[in-house]
């Protein structure tokens, strides 16, 4: 079919918007307002603009051009965010390295993006020297400040396109080497628009960036806050007492709370009798949080819990519009589709499944990433047919809400039947006697694989038989756990996002003997 488009290069550019353009507009309206603080130092929007202009000019002097990658390995700090802004202004791509990775993974990530410049904090300088980089790193501190001081404050040329990459975040997969997800200016702007449209955040609310800046939970919202004129509070990792103190001093938009930390925050508020100010919403990934904790934490903050489902690749979309009301122990955790995205549930041949049947969620949205850096075969597979295939299985209900089933790739195949671990976990987590439950597969001579439940008890008297009885009559007999292992919450291995590393738990169980 012949194209009827009349778009020219100039009309395309006229319809393009980038983070740098929006940030300049925000600076003009909020020049004296605080943009960044770490509790010791405050940086106004005007000063932040001057410093990031200097840094952008310094990057240009280092030979960094639009499309080049700049790598950073550092804890959360003000300079990290300055680097994000400066790179965005000149169309460079900041590759955010994960300091939790082992040397082999870090080297893979360094080599993958071929960075033109490298920045590091003093804390991780030894790591860089051990792993090795093709470029001599610039160290945050005196060397970094000298680099800025010697540069011009002039705004860099505005030659960036909306489809240009702004940041690379590495996926926190539980197996295999990390993949480098490239996120564009278009996607970052869309993520902010969807967040504002669907969460009704307090426009004056601050954002506490305690989660690592190499993860979307902080970086997406940092970019959004700086587009909106909000204050970003930068914390060097999770310090629960400090986090709670900030909520008593500042009105907060969305408060990032991850699975595995909710009980710590509850204990701190109760111990200190803290009185948080206004918070618009709290939390992430309600599926991984014991439901009684959701009721308690929302009551303490007087804020609803975000019943989210998104990813590094998609942002807050596709299903993070739902909020669990204050004080409610939810009966179910069905998801609500976000605005500004289109989704389908499909079978293995990409045919739409009927309502009530499980299918992989595929999505179209301006919030989508551009693809994985240096992985053309993976991109061709995951974007086939013009849709991004997430690999997550859902069921669509009659009211169009979505029930998460599990990852397509993590199935327990038992006697010819497919078992999704989340089906069992949801039943167990709904019990007040259980704080956390994770189900993994175990090789079995007779059935092929069987489910094993790792359980964190709320009730010390809970037995193996009790756990099975909780499941009985709630799920099919073949789905009942064949073994129960009681553990402490600290014994559950988690990724940077709070997701359980199932493969590490699998290593703790051994194959069953022939029956």
Explain the overall architecture.
The protein is of the alpha/beta class and 515 residues long. It folds into 3 domains: 19-324, Rossmann fold (3-Layer(aba) Sandwich); 342-407, Roll (Luciferase, domain 3); 412-506, 2-Layer Sandwich (GMP Synthetase, Chain A, domain 3), CATH 3.30.300.30. It is 32% helix and 23% strand. The protein is built from 16 helices and 26 strands. The strands form 8 sheets. The chain has a 7-stranded mixed sheet, sandwiched between helices. The protein has a 4-stranded mixed sheet with strand order 2-1-10-9. A 4-stranded antiparallel sheet has the order 17-18-20-21. Helix 11 (262-272) packs across helix 12 (291-301). The model has no long low-confidence stretch (mean pLDDT 91).
Helix and strand topology:
Blueprint: H1 9-14, H2 19-30, E1 34-37, E2 42-44, H3 45-61, E3 69-73, H4 78-90, E4 93-96, H5 103-113, E5 117-120, H6 125-131, E6 138-139, H7 142-149, E7 165-170, E8 180-184, H8 185-199, E9 207-209, H9 216-228, E10 232-234, H10 240-249, E11 252-255, H11 262-272, E12 279-282, H12 291-301, E13 305-306, E14 310-311, E15 315-318, E16 323-324, E17 342-346, E18 358-364, E19 371-372, H13 376-382, E20 388-396, E21 402-407, E22 412-414, E23 417-419, H14 421-429, E24 434-444, E25 448-457, H15 464-471, E26 483-486, H16 502-506
Parallel strand pairs: 1-10, 3-4, 3-5, 4-7, 5-6, 9-10, 11-12, 25-26
Antiparallel strand pairs: 1-2, 7-8, 8-19, 13-16, 14-15, 17-18, 18-20, 20-21, 22-23, 24-25
Helix pairs in contact: 2-9, 3-4, 8-9, 11-12
């Amino acid at each position: 079919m012949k194209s009827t488009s009349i778009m020219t290069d100039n009309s395309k550019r006229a319809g393009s918007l980038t983070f740098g353009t929006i940030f300049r507009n925000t600076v003009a309206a909020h020049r004296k307002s605080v943009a960044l603080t770490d509790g010791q130092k405050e940086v106004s929007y005007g000063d932040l603009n001057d410093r990031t202009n200097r840094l952008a000019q310094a990057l240009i002097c280092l030979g960094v051009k639009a499309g080049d990658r700049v790598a950073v390995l550092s804890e959360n700090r003000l300079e990290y965010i300055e680097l994000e802004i400066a790179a965005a202004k000149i169309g460079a791509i900041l590759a955010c390295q994960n300091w939790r990775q082992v040397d082999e993974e870090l080297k893979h990530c360094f080599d993958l993006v071929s960075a033109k410049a490298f920045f590091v904090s003093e804390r991780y300088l030894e790591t860089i020297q051990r792993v090795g980089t093709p470029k001599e790193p610039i160290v945050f501190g005196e060397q970094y400040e000298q680099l800025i001081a010697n540069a011009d404050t002039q705004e860099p040329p505005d030659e960036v396109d909306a489809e240009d990459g702004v940041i690379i975040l590495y996926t926190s997969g539980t197996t295999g080497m990390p993949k480098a997800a490239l996120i564009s200016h278009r996607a970052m702007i869309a993520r902010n628009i969807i967040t504002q449209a669907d969460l009704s955040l307090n426009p004056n609310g601050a954002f506490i960036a305690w989660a690592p800046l190499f993860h979307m939970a902080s970086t997406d919202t940092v970019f959004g806050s700086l587009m909106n004129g909000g204050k970003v509070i930068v914390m060097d990792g999770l310090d629960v007492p400090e986090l709670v103190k900030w909520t008593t001093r500042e009105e907060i938009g969305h408060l990032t709370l991850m699975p595995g930390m909710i009980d710590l925050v509850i204990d701190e508020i109760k111990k200190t009798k803290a009185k948080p100010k206004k918070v618009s919403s709290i939390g992430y990934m309600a599926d991984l949080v014991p439901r009684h904790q959701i009721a308690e934490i929302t009551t303490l903050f007087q804020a609803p819990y975000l019943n989210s489902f998104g990813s590094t690749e998609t942002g807050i979309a596709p299903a993070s519009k739902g909020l669990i009301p204050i004080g409610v122990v939810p009966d179910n955790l069905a998801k609500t589709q976000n605005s500004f995205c289109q989704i389908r549930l499909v079978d293995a041949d990409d045919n739409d499944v009927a309502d009530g049947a499980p299918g992989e969620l595929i999505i179209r949205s301006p919030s989508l990433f551009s693809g994985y850096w240096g992985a053309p075969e993976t991109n061709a597979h995951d974007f086939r047919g013009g849709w991004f295939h997430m690999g997550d299985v859902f069921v669509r209900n009659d009211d169009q809400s979505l029930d998460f089933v599990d990852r397509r790739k993590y199935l327990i195949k038992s006697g010819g039947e497919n078992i999704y671990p989340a089906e069992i976990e949801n039943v167990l987590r709904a019990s007040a006697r259980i704080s956390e439950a994770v189900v993994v597969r175990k090789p079995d001579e007779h059935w092929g694989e069987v489910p094993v439940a790792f359980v964190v008890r709320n009730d010390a008297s809970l037995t193996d038989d009790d756990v099975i009885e909780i499941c009985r009559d709630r799920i099919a007999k073949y789905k009942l756990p064949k073994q129960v292992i009681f553990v402490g919450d600290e014994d559950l291995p988690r990724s940077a996002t709070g997701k359980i590393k199932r493969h590490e738990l699998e290593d703790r169980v051994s194959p069953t003997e022939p029956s």
